[in-house]
Amino acid sequence: MHHLHSGLQRLLATTVFNLFQSELQCVKEELSSSARPLVELRGISKRYGELLANDAVDLAIRPGEIHALLGENGAGKSTLVKILYGVVEPSAGEIQWEGRPVTIASPVEARALGIGMVFQHFSLFDELTVAENIAVALSDDWTLDAVRARLGDISHSYGLALEADRAVWTLSAGERQRIEIVRCLLQGPRLLILDEPTSVLTPQEAEHLFLTLDKLSAEGVSILYISHKLEEVRRLCQTATILRAGKNVASIDPRAHSAREIAALMVGNEVGGVRSTAPHVPKGEMLTVDSLSLPTGSLHGVALSSIDLAAHAGEVVGIAGIAGNGQSELFAALSGERPTDRNDAIIIAGHPCGAAGIDARRRLGAAFVPEERLGHAAAPTHRLSENTLISHAAAEVSRSGFILLRAARRLARAIVQSFDVRMPEADPQARKLSGGNLQKFVIGREMIRNPAVLVVDQPTWGVDAGAARLIRQALVDLATAGSAVIVISQDLDELFEIADRMAVIHQGRLSPMKPVSEWTKESVGLEMLGVAENSGEAVHAL
């Protein structure tokens, strides 16, 4: 009886606590919604020649609010954030800070107001320590000892564990991001801008970040959150401003809308999921990798160790992992950018080709899409028709000897039409396309050949919802038609949506390949961290 009574007491206490927390959250949101905005953008416009990047945009962020900024690639998000952070000067409009007009002419002035920004691409010095990287971004008043002391305080307060004297090059992507966040927090920001903050994080690291942001919000720090991952926006943000073609088209509570509804607002029409017209039935092996090992190719590269991989005709194989764990090295080995000593280490369509280069592998029916669009996949100052020759000339040489530029122009037009590539002019230079449109062109250029094997690295990196859906559907359709598709991606949602089988790469080693149905996001995350599931090490890592 006593145990029953104690149990009821605990249940009652838990219920009261949960109700209190719920009421506290409601009161906090009511206070936030009634408070004067910390920062308000009124009628902000920015014109670049004929292009109107921002068109009379209004945006208000209140104290303690986590506010999402959403939109397709080219919608005007980056321009708006650069204006707020003092990188770009607006053509028209006004910024108000705590109700008074301000001019933000530089990032220095933005930081003086209390605006901090964590960019998608980290700006850290690999050879310096954590403390040294933080110190170089602060004023001369900060000594290294003072940085170490405050680093310890902030790391403890917000759960952002960092070792002050660790060299940055030894850290994971998640730890590097913590440095950027702590660097901002040491400046006492009142508004924190985060650009695609979870793009290089494991699910566990992302959840840890969300808890940190929740705590900052509870302390009154406002957060402007930019992301293409709509489910995390729905979990984290109280308000979302949606831009389309430079205009503010909606301001909503993302928690009250589905991810599909939000995506439809972003692109202007319904965004469906990826569908396969027929179940994928794996057939013969089109790509075989046998005990592939490669030493590091650069000072901070990752060595590949005993990689085994098989991809069959008619399936999508996913390779997950945190950035910097050997993905680039694996792509270079598969594509022939880094030939191996053993010819039988890589077999394409039954032909050993480990020692062969890219052109020879293309002639075997393979196609490759590297992570870096501009400079690696496409020559920036060359026109799209000329960029078509990059892969097609090598692939066709055995049949025709060469491809006339006229034929390349026709092929480029076919790619543009099939993959909805939006261009500022006919046959533009590659650098004139937005990132999402260039990615669609590069993937279309490889897929239009109907390759036997396609290896693509980060297919939808920084791509909006509409373009991502088109690319993923095209990859699934290619596998359905009988190709072997290998997708290297840091986006777990993407891999769970399109892959048939999946493995995880960590520090140059590949985990066993398993059907996607046998993975969970948690188990993938643990593999990405390099710890065994259900082990004490796994508990410690979390």
Key features?
single chain; 542 residues; alpha/beta; Rossmann fold; 2 domains; 6-stranded mixed sheet; 18 helices; disordered C terminus; ATP-binding; ATP hydrolysis activity; AAA+_ATPase
Please provide the count of β strands. Answer: 21
Indicate the CATH topology of the largest domain. Rossmann fold
CATH homology superfamily name of the largest domain: P-loop containing nucleotide triphosphate hydrolases
For the record, the count of structural domains works out to 2
Spans where pLDDT lies below 50 across 5 or more residues: 1-8, 10-21, 397-401, 534-542
**CA-based shape:** globular
Number of helices in the DSSP assignment = 18
Task: Estimate the strand proportion.
Answer: 15-25%
Annotated CATH architecture of the largest domain:
3-Layer(aba) Sandwich
Structural class: alpha/beta
- Helix content, binned percent: 25-40%
Highest-level CATH class of the largest domain: Alpha Beta
Keywords: ATP-binding, Nucleotide-binding
Family: Belongs to the ABC transporter superfamily.
Protein name: ABC transporter ATP-binding protein
GO molecular function: ATP binding; ATP hydrolysis activity
